[in-house]
Amino acid sequence: MKIPKKLKIGGFTFQVKMVDPNKDTMDSYGICDITNSIIHISTSIPKALQESTLIHEIIEAINGICEIRLEHTQITALEAGLYQVLKDNKLLK
To answer: In the chain, what are the domain boundaries?
Structure first.
């Protein structure tokens, strides 16, 4: 999957930024900043982990925008399941 620079999620345009966690003091693989419509993805992780992290942060955005109130463990399970289906069925390029 090519990581896009922008994504439309729930009617909002989110910027997707690849960031160096050492320079940007990021302590996780990704962060979804709903207030500023930005998703940050770490450059220090492998491509497959960047892809699954993007899916995770998209679910985080939907969760926040739609006020679904999913727990983080539920978001993580959804991300892992979706990534596996997309990868195993060759839907990611």
So the answer is: 6-88
